[in-house]
Amino acid sequence: MSKKLKSYKDLVVWQKSLTLVKLDYQLTRSLPADERFGPVSQIQCAAESVPSNLAESHALNTTGEFIQFISNAEGSLAGLLTQLIVSIEPGFCAADGAQPLHRLIEEIQKMANALRRSLASCP
Known about the structure:
The chain is mainly α. The protein has a single domain, classed as de novo design (two linked rop proteins), CATH 1.20.1440. The protein has helices at about 10-30, 40-60, 65-90, 95-120. The radius of gyration is 15 Å and the shape is elongated.
């Protein structure tokens, strides 16, 4: 990275992950109430951990730690995508209703991957 970030809030990937959480909560409100301890809980937890891990990563002292927390965020994104699919398959939510969230997950995955690779290539 060419310039020092003042805050994790300057990371576009963190900003987009907040949008992800908002979309996630909009989607999970439409899921059946009796699923609130299953897919709803898993989806919300995974979505919330993405911006949290990105924020924590920026607060760490070493590039290696930064990379590890970005990898944690990538893991949460994969888990979120899986839980989204788990919710679509039995018909808890409509596939077309989940599309905006699915697209945003993929976009954030690409951004997090690019950030991690950029950090790994720094001396």
